[in-house]
Structure formats: C-alpha cells, structure tokens
Amino acid sequence: MLALVSFPRSGNTFFRNLLFELYGIESSTFHREPGRSLDENWATYPVVKTHLLPHELPQELQAAKVVYIIRDGRDALVSLAHHRKDIIEPGTNYYNNLLESIIAEEGSYFGGWSRNVAEWTARATIVIRYEDLINDPIKETEKLRAIMDLPPPREERLPSFKDLKFGKPQYGAGSGAQYDPGIQSKNFRKGKSGSWQEEMPLDLHRLFWLLHGAQMEKHHYLDGQVEIGSFLQPKKVLLEVSKLYTKGNDGIKQYLDDLIAGLQIFVRHFPNWRIDLYHQGQIAPILDTSIIQEFIEAHEQEDYESRLLRIKAQIKDTLPEKLYDRLSHYYRQGPFRRLLAWYRSRVKQQQFKERNEAMRQRLASYHLIHLPLPQHYHILAEVKVPKLVTVHDITHLLFPQFHTAHNIQLSEDGFRQSRADSAFYISISEASRRDAQAAYGIPDDHFRTIYEGVSGRFSKKHQEVPFAATRAKYGLPENGLFLMSLSTIEPRKNILQMIEAFRQMKRDHPEVEAYFFVCGNKGWLSDEVYASEAAFKKEGIYFSGFIDQEDLPLFYAHAHALCYASHYEGFGLPLLEAMQSGTPVIYGNNSSMPEVVKAGGIGVEAQELNEISSAMYNLLTNRALHSELAKKAWEQANTFSLNKSAFHTLLYYEDIIAKSQG
C-alpha cells in the first residue's frame, strides 16, 4: 500500500487522476471528517490519499510507503481559503479564512502548513514538488517506479488541468449520484503556480512568512520573500483592564475580553511580544490566566466603592420610601455626587502616588500602553510612555442627556489628557472615527479604524437546538415566533419606541402572531419602560431580564429578527452577534450601524414609529425577504473576525512603537 499525502490543495487529487489515467491505478482516501463517509474497503486499494499527520493515521497505513506532494505554502493556503469560501462553507470570508489557515490555531488545518510539511518530508520515501508536477506530469509520476510496479504510461490519456476542470474526472467531482460538475470546477480552480501574488494581501503575506518562512526556505521556496521588519524584535505592551472587573456586561467589556483572547493567540506564536494586563497596581502576563483570575478574586473583596454601595442599600432598607426618594433627589441634584466623585478621584490619585518607585520604573519600561476607553486615561496618565486609546463613541458629547455628569467629565478629561500627550487612537467603526476627529481634531496619522469581531460561539447551527426549555427558564412563552431586542434598558437604546412600534404593528395587523422579547438588564432612566410591564405582557411583550452567556446564542439563532433601532452606536455588537447566528436585524439608520449591517437588515429612523413598525411587519410576513436578509446578514457577519481585529491591533502596536522609537 502507498500513502499519497499532502497538505490540502497541494495537488493530491490531481496526482490521483494522473495515476488513474496514465496507469489505471485506482485509489481511495482516509480521513476523520465527521459526516463524510469512507470507502468500505478503502484499505484494499493500492494507493490511499490523506492529509492527516503521521500520528493520526490508522494502523493499516502506519507501515505504508509515503509519497508526499509539497506545494508553495502561499499557493496552497490561498487555494484552501477559496475552497472553504466556495465549497466547504459557502459565504464565509476569503480574508478571514486565509488568516485562520495561516495561524492554524491549536493544530487545526492538519497541523498547519509548516508542521504538515516538516513531519511528512522527514518520513516520506518520495517527495514531489507540485510545481514540477504541473510542468512535467509524466516525469514526476514515473518516480513511483522506485517503490511500486507500474505499467507503461498511457501518454495519450494524459489529462490537462482544463480536462479535469471541465471534463468528468475520476476524482475530485464526486461519483455516481454524487457527481457535481459545479463542485468539480471549483475543486480544480486554477492549477498554476504563483497565484498567491495576485490573491494574498501584503499583511497576510508578512504573517505567513513570519510563521512559515523557515520551512519555505528549507524547501527552496525563495521567490517573493517579504521583509519581516521589526516585528520579531522584543516589545512590551501594557493593556489596562479594569473594565473587566466591573459588574454586569456591556460592549466595552466584551471588546476587551475578545481583544485579550485574540492577542493571546499571537503572543503564543510570537513570544518576543510581551503583552501584560494592568489592574489596580497589579501586572499579569496576558497568557497567565491564573493571575487574571486572582485579579477577579481580589476585586471581589469589598473596596471603597462597594462599601459605599452597601451603605446606600442599608439606608434604603432602613428609611421610609418617601423619605428615601426625597433624599435621593437631593443627592442627585445637589453637590453631594460631585463631591463624592471628586473625593473618589482624589483617592485614586493618592493610591497611584503611593506606589513605590519600583512600580513606576516597571511601568516606564513598556513600549506602549493601551487604554480601552478614554475614561480610564487618568489611571496611567502620569506614566511617560506612548499611549493608545480605543474610542468606542463620543455620545457624551452627541447625547449628553444619556450620560451622568461624572461620566461626561471623565470622558472629556480623557480626551483632553490624551490629546495633550499626542496619544494614538483606535476607533471601532468609521462613524466613531469621523465623530471623534471632528470633535477633537485628531490627525489621521494618529487614528486607525479596527472593527470588532464576533465570537465563534454564535452560529446558525443553534437554530437546530431545542429552545422551548430555555424560553421557559426566562418566563417567556415556550412556543411561537418572536422578535427580540438586547441591551441594557436605557434611553439611548430606544427600547420604548420599539415597544410602541410592535404594539402599533399588532394593532394594524392583529392576524400576525408574534411576541416581542425585551432582553437585558434594567438600566438608568428606565422606569417609564417598566411602568407598563404588566399591560405589555397582555400584548405579547415580555421582559426577560439579563440573558446568561450560555443561553444568548440560542436566543439569537431562534429569533425571527433582532430589533436594534438605537439612537446611536459606536459599533453595535449585538447586531453582529445576531447576524452571525443567521438572523436579520432591524437597525437604527445612524452612526456606525449601516456600515456594520450593510445588506443584512432593514435600516429605520430611530424616531419614526411607522418605519420600525413596517419593518417588523415585513420581516414577520414576507418569507422571501426574511430568507434573503438572513443569508446576507450571515455573509456580512463573516467579514468580521476576532482574529483579524487582534491581528490588526498588533500591527498598529508595531507601527506606533516604531514611530515612537524613530
């Protein structure tokens, strides 16, 4: 038995067809892919194709002689990214597929190109270069005479790549009832060398060479090498993470959590990059999750602010309700809150000043400090290190009525201090970048837009998971079509307007049977929304409260649509999460939302009740429209990626450090 091995998209199937046409040799395959069958008698074939690593082979193949086909890794991965986009998972994004295949995290993609090549070339009896195989197929296949008996080649049957693409090949298009010429034409895509030059973006080419350059050079793939630059020089970045330890969950906290997870992937590959997390005078390596957990446990101990909250709760429980409400009014309107905020700020400043000189020197040793929002700039403002600030929005200026005076002041102070320090900025959308630059005059060369990604835990596959028990868990009707909103219940999210739109839609179209689930924690200035909760329930409007993280993918996947007609969003992560779940969205036609959603939903004016109501009705009653928008929503969501977001952030770190040192 002969094992015919290669990394995917390296000419394995082409070689099988050559063996069949030139010598009449049939072959089978061995794989471990769920849902895909094997030939019942695969082990009786003289040649068995596989992409698996040596230790993954079954006993029948362990002693087989090995022919390994090696191809320029850039061409193989470009072809693999297209293969996934066109055949394996239609609608996925080419760039993100290529990025994932280059990284090959946790041994995915058959170990990754370098590992697959290294392990198999060390074991193979014969190694054939794909580029030589394309140029002279008979010469390369004749090399097998050294290890197996071959009849004279039937040269008149030598297939061209065009024959395989448009003819009816023995392998690569299915067989019998499974024959599919559409898949065949995509399987045999180009069949040439060097296509990476047209299809591999420069940033990914550089990443490829950083990760796979050693094996490329070892096997003499030297054309088109890319300049590595300063990427592999030692670098130290400090990421301020106190937002992780606030109660509840919001978009900024999710951004930070996702960024850490993405950066961890690259730090594992590039140990010269030291990225540490900073919280209240404590520093932890980004890969040391045990220390991160210690941060959480330390934060959970009662501190200054938690004591204040406890005292406030005790006062509320002790005083009569009317007296407490009166005192609360004086507290909000009088100078007490401002004095408390001032005192809290003074406490934090004093805490920083009391840190010893060793800590200050340690902080000063970093090449860059990244602060995830302007409000936290004061925490490390005194450290004279280049700084990067993530700007999520400037709603404290555009919609001050939706913010406390304290938050507005913190935001303004953060922008003022960061501008004075000539800091650099990331915006999570073009809309946020335009707004921030217009408000603060930030120069273009100090600003970069890097979109957020979405977790892989959101998927269309959850549409097949039973959902009735989860609905019951939150006190919701166990069956029936539903729309949903998801956010903290606060004025900026426009929840009351969406509720009214749903009520109007039901009044105008009583034949439509559907619910509206309002999901999320109660926020500030939300009493008006909750005042009519009992009456709303009679009209099919239910408040679920906070949705646990493990349940959220099911809600998105089973919802008929997400309603997110907010007044303003810096990005709108729930939109992306719903779209990744194959669910179309109704979104506010303002700020960042049109650029995030594009064709994956219906844009409405946040103040226009009729528009929101009409969009709800159309999605609930027009199956063709819903199906088309669901498809476009999923495809649009796949243009975003946590890996891409982290990778582009790392590249920005590199650029900032280079500018600061230059």
Report what the structure shows.
With 662 residues, this protein is α/β, with parallel strands linked by helices. It has 30 helices and 18 strands. It has a 7-stranded mixed sheet with strand order 8-7-6-9-10-11-12, sandwiched between helices. It has a 6-stranded parallel sheet with strand order 15-14-13-16-17-18, with helices on both faces. Helix 20 links the parallel strand 11 (424-427) and strand 12 (447-449). It is globular and about 100 Å long. It starts with a strand and ends with a helix. The mean pLDDT is 89.
Rg on CA atoms, Å: 30 Å
Q: What would the principal axes of the Cα set say about the shape?
A: globular
- Residue share in helices? 40-55%
Strand content: 5-15%
Largest sheet: 7 strands, mixed
Oligomeric nature of the chains:
single chain
Mean pLDDT: 89
- Tell me how many strands there are: 18
Question: Which structural class fits the helix and strand makeup?
Answer: alpha/beta
Residue stretches low in confidence (pLDDT < 50, at least 5 long) are none
Distance between the termini: 60 Å
The largest sheet has its strands arranged as 8-7-6-9-10-11-12
Report the total helices.
Answer: 30
